[in-house]
């Protein structure tokens, strides 16, 4: 078993980004800028936004956070996005989800200019991904591909099974893997809750990517010997031995599966750090050569 170390890979990406930004500034070019919108007081969302802001500062990017009360109207939120669309120092923006229930997330995300949609959620970016055109790719799937690339894992003609069909991970992940590109060009199957028995599909996978949000779902009997296992899940489960009272686990039972597979990502320290690194990567890309 080979461990895919997301912390190490993310640090490599961040170092490369820092070096590029330092060179840009030395040449008198503008720093890449990321804007972060947080609506409401969701504790987890606050942690995520603050960590993204910290990441920007560490690599030398400009960043700003706009905090709005939970009762903000949809029009007020959209007004902020339009302001950033027109702001030349902002090259990328993210709207931290979930938004309050009275706000239509689709309409808000659709207001972001596609060239500043570094989260890759805009329908135009999603559509361009589907047909293989240049686009911003959702950060978690982009991070998974970067892991595969840097560990030189063969994908051409391999059977990739994606467990999960979310717009953020499952769908874009599947679309990325069947494109006729290097570190893609695979045969892809998507599993979801409609499957009566996912084991019959997961056991066929040369590369198994799990993003379904069910703690410890995948056991060794679900994995083909020698498969590559990428665990996108991040779940809290009760653990009274921990000071916090819980521990973080993935959708894959790591201890049960690790001796069956050829490569595996841990949780934490696997896909998560790469997701954060790819947000920086997308913002830098927008600031330098763009996508379209």
Structural notes for this entry:
The strands form three sheets. Strands 1-11-8-7-5-6 form a six-stranded parallel β-sheet, with helices on one face. The radius of gyration is 19 Å and the shape is globular. The model has no long low-confidence stretch (mean pLDDT 95). The chain has two domains: 29-113, Leucine Dehydrogenase, chain A, domain 1 (Rossmann fold, 3-Layer(aba) Sandwich), CATH 3.40.50; 139-272, Rossmann fold. It is α/β, with parallel strands linked by helices. The chain has helices spanning 6-26, 43-59, 74-85, 105-111, 123-130, 139-150, 170-178, 199-202, 254-257, 271-288, and strands at residues 2-3, 33-39, 62-68, 92-95, 159-163, 187-191, 207-210, 228-231, 235-238, 246-249, 263-264.
């Amino acid at each position: 078993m080979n461990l895919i170390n997301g912390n190490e890979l993310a640090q490599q990406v961040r170092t490369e980004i820092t070096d590029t930004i330092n060179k840009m500034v030395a040449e008198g070019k503008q720093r890449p800028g990321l804007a972060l919108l947080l609506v409401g007081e969701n504790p987890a969302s606050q942690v995520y936004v603050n960590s993204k802001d910290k990441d920007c500062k560490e690599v030398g990017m400009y960043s700003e956070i706009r905090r709005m009360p939970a009762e903000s109207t949809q029009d007020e939120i959209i007004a902020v996005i339009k302001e950033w669309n027109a702001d030349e120092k902002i090259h990328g923006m993210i709207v931290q989800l979930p938004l309050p229930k009275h706000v239509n997330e689709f309409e808000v995300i659709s207001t972001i200019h596609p060239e500043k949609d570094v989260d890759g959620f805009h329908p135009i970016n999603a559509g361009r991904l589907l047909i293989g055109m240049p686009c911003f790719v959702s950060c978690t799937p982009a991070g998974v591909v970067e892991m595969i690339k840097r560990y030189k894992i063969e994908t051409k003609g391999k059977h990739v099974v994606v467990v999960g069909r979310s717009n953020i991970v499952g769908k874009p992940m599947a679309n990325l893997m069947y494109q006729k590109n290097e570190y893609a060009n695979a045969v892809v199957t998507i599993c979801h809750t409609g499957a009566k028995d996912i084991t019959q599909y997961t056991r066929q996978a040369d590369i198994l990517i799990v993003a379904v949000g069910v703690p410890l779902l995948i056991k060794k009997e679900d994995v083909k010997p020698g498969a590559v296992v990428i665990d996108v899940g991040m779940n809290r489960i009760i653990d009274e031995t921990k000071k916090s009272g819980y521990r973080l686990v993935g959708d894959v039972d790591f201890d049960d599966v690790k001796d069956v597979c050829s490569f595996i990502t841990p949780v934490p320290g696997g896909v998560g750090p790469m997701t954060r690194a790819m947000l920086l990567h997308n913002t830098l890309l927008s600031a330098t050569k763009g996508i379209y």
